[in-house]
Amino acid sequence: MHPDPRPLVLSLSGITKRFGPLTANDHIDLDIRAGEIVALLGENGAGKTTLMSILFGHYVADEGAIHIADEAGRLAPLPGGSAEAALAAGIGMVHQHFALAENLTGFENIVLGTQSLWSFGLGRREARAKIARLVAESGLAVDLDVPVARLSVGEQQRIEILKALYRDVRVLILDEPTAVLTPQEADGLVATVRKLAAKGLAVIFISHKLHEVLALCERVAVLRGGAKVADRPTAGADRATLAELMVGRAIPQRERPPSTPGAPVLSLKEVSVGNPGQRDRLENASLDVRAGELVGIAGVSGNGQGALAGLVAGLAAARAGEVTLDGQRLTSADPAGRVTAHVGRIPEDRHRDGTIGALSVAENYVLESIGDPENQCGGFIRRGDIRVRAAEMIRAYDVRCPGPDAAIRALSGGNMQKVVLARALEGEPRLVLAHQPTRGLDIGATTDVHRRLIAARARGAAVLLISEDLDELFVLSDRIAVVHAGHLSPAMEAASLDVRTVGLMMAGHTAGEAA
Amino acid sequence: MIRFVPRERTPVWLTVAVSVGAGLVALLLTAIPLALSGAPVFTAFALMARGAAGDGFALAETLTRATPLIFTGLAAAVAFRAKLWNIGAEGQLYAGALATVVLGAGLVEAPSYVLVPLVLLGAAAAGAALLLVPVLFKTRFGADEVVVTLLMNFIVLLFVQMMLEGPVKDEMALGWPQSAPVLDEATLPKLVAGLRLHWGLVLAVVAAVLLHVFISRTVWGFRIRAVGENARAARYAGLPVGKAMALVGILSGGLAGLAGASEVAGLKGYLTADLSPGFGYAGIVVATLANLSPLGVVPSAIFIAGVFVGADSMSRAIGVSNYLADLVVAFSLLSVLVGGLLTRFRIVFVRREPA
């Protein structure tokens, strides 16, 4: 191997951070050169966030050192525990959740905090000129003079990146930057990042979307269990090898056996939900989900998924139109009625809607069915029976927990989701609603959720999957519908669709335009 | 630098230790103003302990004082478990007391095995009805129950005063605003002849045990816990959130109403407008100190009652104001709230490197 001629801009050596018995970062070395795009891969809990927090001065490393190049290109140690020092040294980060003042314009957000208190109003012209130059160089075109609340998520992200560039960053960290974007917006971002890197910016790209990592990055560092397990060029790597490096074992391929759909289980006819003023609403939506069929709903979050999920879960009633479940009309908001009608429901937010943190695993498991004869007798809870069944469930779903009596909030997200899944799929529901069922889960837990949904479909359940993850939708769905600004497209055969078409529809184009 | 690390689970011994520790810390803190006032600290505490539990008579007096506190403590515990912030136990207590004299002072004539249950039921119903109003306001219109229950206390007290001047007034009381006495058949018998201790204490302890079983073992108790811990998830799971809240209102108001019945039918024999020296509010401290556990309410109420009774006795002996008791109670509440941090978080000391 010949040495890379580009100068080092950032060098982490032997970074170690312990939280009690847990070693979150275990002697991690990472070098980044000017103009290099490096992916940082790892499952939840692998130590990515801790490492970036140390780099940013939110945590102090127990061991190890950070060196960063100064103006002249000489490496100098970066003092730990100081976010100011990190910013001053030229480290910038675009978080997954933006840090923008929504009532200020893009321009104001970009310059916010960079001007001295005493020179207010001065230097506006210089700032304008500098931003105009940055926009020209990076291709990040965006309206700078409207409040950012009126911009789309993708546009807000451009403001965030410009904000970092305006502070003359030499190292830019992008945390899951494509999670909120349509595929087309993501392509635009990739082009921008390439341009910036070509001008000498070092980029750390945190993602779990392996195909993006392979397409964009020249090098990939993989963390697992707090340690760096691989640091290799992306050339010659494929998705399977990267996934195995992340998880530490081979990933079973998901298989979706063919199935013949039966009669419609859930049927929406010109249904409207929510106020016309809201973005998350449904207008005249029609959809059939048939027995033995998995229908996926694609869309950028907040475009009507919440309204659809609320309708199916029984939290909201339709304002207009007709909703039928197995031929029975559903007219009112009635979560308990959905339980008795055998609708298995996996809510979007398992902490807020799916579980009660202070209650035990067993109690959460029987939350919906506590009134049923197998769980109570004369108003008294059959605690022994419930504990036995919960223990069986823990085995069957491989829930890693101290036992059925452990408070569910002590469980990891994946294990918590397994309990939610077990509850939703209990009693072989006719219809399964899965709203973002794998959000925040690692590859192992995600695979498990997918397997269970496929199994429900295989035994004849109708499955409605609402997801922002297009990979997930394409792998699992028989048909896909796209929701944008409250309008639901007709469900189309997944086999006849491609990611590009769905992406254009997510941005508001009709199927005809997109095709 | 100190960091708070959330605990995954809180052992039971720690919860108990925090409650006991909070009581001790409160007594220690009280030593400061006691010393400042020039009183001999150790003598004062010794007198206080003797006054609260020094002999059978003192102990009986403490338990008598603990009886209404157990009821109001349970009222607060069950409500707070469901995150229904009932600050109106004082008013519900008076509503129960008023129902007791209305039913027990001559309106109904029956043998005691009929009249006592009737009086207790009437008192519980009055307290429950009074709390159901703010509960319905909360579930229907989203009205804040803290404000409504708190303000209703004043309305109820004024109403009781009006009744004492009118319909339930004792004509034989020479113009004093007090009610006619309850009939002998409506009176709760004394536990020991010659002492003020009465069967209300037994009822209170039984109520604590029943409430514990109800909360931890029954379907409706489960629903109440679920709604209290996460109402959104409970609603998503299809639990009857509104009904559970109404049930909590009935239980909490009913228990506070029983405190009034027990004081009137067990201790005083008639109703006056100064029946309760703030038992309803003290119940909040009792419940908090007990970590909202119904069984814990019993020792917690006895501790608070002992502080009141002991402080009375001490102030008579050495001339220190018995407001000291209020100070101990206030310090207990503050200590247990601080102590609550220990049950929810582990405190970790980390050395911060110089930046």
Automatic annotation (TrEMBL), chain A:
Top-level taxon in the UniProt lineage: Bacteria
Q: Where is this region: Disordered?
A: 251-280
Per UniProt, the keywords (alphabetical) are: ATP-binding, Nucleotide-binding
The protein's matches in PROSITE patterns, at most eight in alphabetical order, are given as: ABC_TRANSPORTER_1, ABC_TRANSPORTER_2
| Endpoints of the signal sequence | none
What GO terms are given for molecular function?
ATP binding
Tell me the SUPFAM superfamilies matching this sequence.
Answer: P-loop containing nucleoside triphosphate hydrolases
Q: Which residues form the ABC transporter domain?
A: 10-250, 266-510
* Protein family (similarity comment): Belongs to the ABC transporter superfamily.
PANTHER family xref list: CARBOHYDRATE TRANSPORT ATP-BINDING PROTEIN MG119-RELATED, GUANOSINE IMPORT ATP-BINDING PROTEIN NUPO
- Identification of the protein by name: ABC transporter ATP-binding protein
Q: Which organism is it from?
A: Ancylobacter moscoviensis
TrEMBL record, chain B:
Q: Which Pfam families match?
A: BPD_transp_2
> What protein name is recorded for this chain?
ABC transporter permease
Identify the taxonomic lineage of the organism of origin.
Bacteria, Pseudomonadati, Pseudomonadota, Alphaproteobacteria, Hyphomicrobiales
Keywords, ordered alphabetically: Cell membrane, Membrane, Transmembrane, Transmembrane helix
Q: What are the subcellular locations of this protein? A: Cell membrane
Membrane topology listed for this record: Multi-pass membrane protein
Q: Which domain of life is it from?
A: Bacteria
Output the InterPro entries linked to this UniProt entry.
ABC_transp_permease
Residue ranges annotated as transmembrane are 12-36, 56-80, 92-108, 114-137, 146-164, 197-215, 236-259, 279-311, 323-342
